[in-house]
Write a structure and sequence with these properties.
184 residues, alpha/beta, Double Stranded RNA Binding Domain, five-stranded mixed beta sheet, 5 strands, LPS-assembly lipoprotein LptE
Length: 184
């Protein structure tokens, strides 16, 4: 009984604060097969984006297919910048930056999601003393940033597609001969 009451209070609290689960990526039904390509041959980001699209129900295109919708990862860049040093001048704290450029094209070559840049950064501490043989904080952050970058790219695709769907709905709802109101 106390367990059920705790779950009920938690559910009420989360719904009251505005928390809600993200919806699944909603791809157009006429999209057809989708291919993810990257300028980096063994890109972990491309693999993660491909898995995200598969989870959203996208039909996977063959590797050699040409006339398919393509999410192209045009660039991936990593950078470390020291942000704090110790009394000996050794860098102790860093800012890890990750940027990716992508574009999503339909099978006919038209742009579905225009070219966009996504940038993420995290700060971390790196001890110069006795760091051999351990999984460093940087390596953990690299993995996290790749997952976050994949999710960010998919959210941007979803945002553009949801905007297009809302625009189609607004145009369809406008009376004949009258343009929909512009919300600028």
């Amino acid at each position: 009984m106390p367990r059920l009451l705790g779950v009920l209070i938690l559910a009420t609290g989360l719904s009251g604060c505005g928390f809600h689960l993200r919806n699944k990526l909603d791809l157009p039904s006429d999209l057809g097969p989708v291919k993810v390509s990257s300028t980096t041959k063994y890109s972990k980001l491309a693999l993660l984006v491909e898995r995200g699209l598969d989870a959203a129900g996208a039909q996977k295109a063959d590797e050699d297919a040409t006339e398919v919708a393509t999410l192209q990862i045009l660039s991936e860049r990593w950078g470390d910048m020291p942000i704090a040093v110790d009394e000996f001048g050794r860098a102790q704290e860093f800012s890890l930056r990750y940027a990716a450029v992508f574009v999503f094209r339909r099978a006919d070559g038209s742009v579905m999601v225009p070219q966009q840049v996504v940038e993420l950064s995290r700060d971390y501490v790196s001890q110069a003393i006795d760091s051999t043989g351990t999984n460093t904080e940087r390596e953990t952050l690299v993995t996290e940033l790749q997952r976050e970058m994949s999710a960010s790219i998919l959210r941007r695709v979803d945002g553009v597609l949801a905007g297009e769907a809302a625009g189609r709905t607004t145009r369809a709802a406008a009376p004949a001969g009258q343009a929909p109101a512009n919300r600028n």
